[in-house]
Amino acid sequence: MVTINLKKIIRDVPDFPKKGIIFKDITPLLRDAKAFRETVDRISKKFKNKKIDVVVSIESRGFIFGSAIAYKLGASFVPVRKKGKLPFLTHRVSYELEYGIDTLEIHQDAIKEGENVLIVDDLLATGGTAKAVAQLVEKLKGKVAGIAFLIELGFLNGKKKIEEYPVYTIIKY
Ligand code: AMP
């Protein structure tokens, strides 16, 4: 496989959504068919022998990659959403972001006991979001088989927060 320089395609947007944050804009990567496919293929390949039953992703950019990876792995897809968006009974957890505090929810019947779960998001910053999602999965007695990201902001040490899980990232800053 010829690998594309994915890092070059990601756009830095300074001071978004607030001053001091350099936002990693993945829309140019999504706009590039080969780069988008390579991202999905590389994460899927990494987990293809791990018997993943369910891919869990976080709204909204996580959904873009997570659903494609679920399709590729022949797994099901479960959305984790911000408070108040899921229609059925939920479990919720509050967590800290690089820029604020938020609450995430999962449907109470989303995962069966013992199912192997791959968590997918676009970017690992402080690790708070991924940790919160792992807690939701474990509350439902799912097994977190791995956590995958397109981008890791290494200087924020997010991997430390989720060190008990296998973590895979494609691009590191
Ligand atoms: P964290 O919980 O700190 O690891 O933050 C991860 C979540 O926030 C991911 O869902 C990212 O999409 C988003 N995020 C945090 N920092 C950035 C950034 N610098 N650029 C783009 N997205 C970010």
Report on the architecture of this protein.
This protein has 6 helices and 9 strands. With 173 residues, it is an alpha/beta fold. The protein has one domain: 3-Layer(aba) Sandwich (Rossmann fold). Strands 5-6-4-3-7-8-9 form a 7-stranded mixed sheet, with helices on both faces. Strand 1 and strand 2 form a beta hairpin. It is globular. It binds adenosine monophosphate. Adenosine monophosphate (AMP) binds next to strand 2, strand 7 and helix 5.
List keywords for this structure.
two-stranded antiparallel sheet; 9 strands; about 170 residues; about 35% strand; binds adenosine monophosphate; seven-stranded mixed β-sheet; 6 helices; Rossmann fold; alpha/beta
Q: What's this entry about, in short?
A:
The chain has 173 residues and is α/β, with parallel strands linked by helices.
Strand line-up in the sheet with most strands: 5-6-4-3-7-8-9
- Overall CATH class: Alpha Beta
Number of domains: 1
Sheet having the most strands? 7 strands, mixed
**How big is the Rg?**
15 Å
Bulk shape: globular
Q: Number of helical runs?
A: 6
CATH topology name? Rossmann fold
Runs in which pLDDT lies below 50 for 5 or more consecutive residues are: none
Percent helix, as a range, is 25-40%
Secondary structure: elements and pairs:
Blueprint: H1 6-9, E1 11-14, E2 22-25, H2 27-31, H3 33-47, E3 54-58, H4 61-73, E4 76-82, E5 90-97, E6 100-107, E7 116-124, H5 128-139, E8 143-152, H6 158-161, E9 167-172
The structure holds adenosine monophosphate.
